Amino acid sequence: MNDNFSGAGNFELPTLDMETRKLLRETQNETDDNGDRIRKLEDKLANLSLVTEALWSLLNKRTKLTNEDLAASIQEVVHARKTREETRLTCIKCKMQNAVNHKKCMYCGGELIGHTEKSLFNF
Questions:
Q1: In a structure prediction context, what are the per-residue pLDDT tens digits for the chain, which is 123 residues long?
Q2: Rounded CA separation 122/119 (Å)
Q3: What angle do CA 49, 123, 40 make, to 5 degrees?
Q4: Which of 1, 35, 84, 112 has the fewest beta carbons closer than 10 A?
């Protein structure tokens, strides 16, 4: 008996034991699920892009902001995000380095040394 797995281009495999067949079906299901998740993420990204463009259009029409102002603001945000990502806080207890978005040490739960301004956009 041959197994036909359509997800990989309709080809037949030699007779497989039950465990291998089960694994192949699970892998195919995971692949299908991941494809669905990717499509949903792409749809969300397209919607966010549309909303962003609409918001910019409103701001541009109702204020004196220009495309150059927007470009400069984008560069400021890029720099601020990079700075936040590169900044590390040291744990008092274990001396491990932690990202600034942690309230406590992710390794031991200890208190972190240092202070940085947190962004509303750090989740």
A1: 445 555 555 556 567 788 888 898 999 999 999 999 999 999 999 999 999 999 999 999 999 999 999 999 999 999 988 988 888 999 999 999 998 888 899 999 999 988 656 667 765
A2: 6
A3: 40
A4: 1
For 16, residues 6+ apart whose C-beta sits below 8 A from its C-beta are 3, 24
Cβ-contact 19, 3 below 8 angstroms = no
- The CA-based angle 25-26-29, given to 5 degrees, is 85
pTM of the model: 0.57
Contact of 73 with 60, CB cutoff 8 Å: no
Alpha-carbon gap, residue 111 to 93, rounded angstroms: 7
Q: And the tokens for 39?
A: 């499509």
